[in-house]
Amino acid sequence: MKISGSGRLSEGVINDELRVSGAARIDGNFECNGFRSSGALRGSGDLTVHGDVRSSGSFRLNGSLYGDGNAKSSGSASVGGALLIKGVLGSSGSLRVGDKLEALEGIRSSGSVRVQGDIFSQNRIDIEGSATIDGNIKGDEIFIGTSLIRARRLIKQRFKVYGSIFATNKVDITGVYVAGDVRGRDVRIGRRSEILGAVFYIDSIEVHKQAILSNEPIQIEVEKKNLKNNY
User: Fold this and answer.
1) Is 217 left (phi over 0), alpha (psi -120 to 50) or beta?
2) What global pTM score does this model have?
3) pLDDT tens readout for residues 89-110
């Protein structure tokens, strides 16, 4: 189904890909086999996509977005509820999520991201640009602000996490404010980072001289499988 002008859809299910290049509105919950939008889309309910989700325009959904493929956003996207993706999520624009964000195969954000719940992935989470996260971040490997390592000047913290950061393996953060704890097997706290909670590591710890820790790092002896289960 293609909408290239101005259109309005009622809630329902279509066995086709929804393509929007104009302006469209969806009233209620909607389900489709793939979604692409380069225009402006507004939705009042939940959107379920069986396939990939691609948005390069303006996308605003009051409900939750569920996708069983990959998702890519390069424009302005706002999801009032949860954003749940089974594949990989890539965002290079502005992304706002009113609840939790999950992308099981990985998360890559190079734009601006604001999440009012937790972030979770079974694989790598890589956040650049800027971010404000109200909940916890949980993943296999977590990298935040690593592109700033070679920056000559880093005046303020562009990344704020008001929960905790939990990684099964590696944590590498630069210019990040963390209100909670940081946990991982190998942990690197880069410059201009501030951790109010505790820092727990298993194998290695590296703390930049310009980082601020409220507590001394604590080495723990936990099997990898137990570390994952505890998070």
Assistant:
1) beta
2) 0.91
3) 999 999 999 999 999 999 999 9
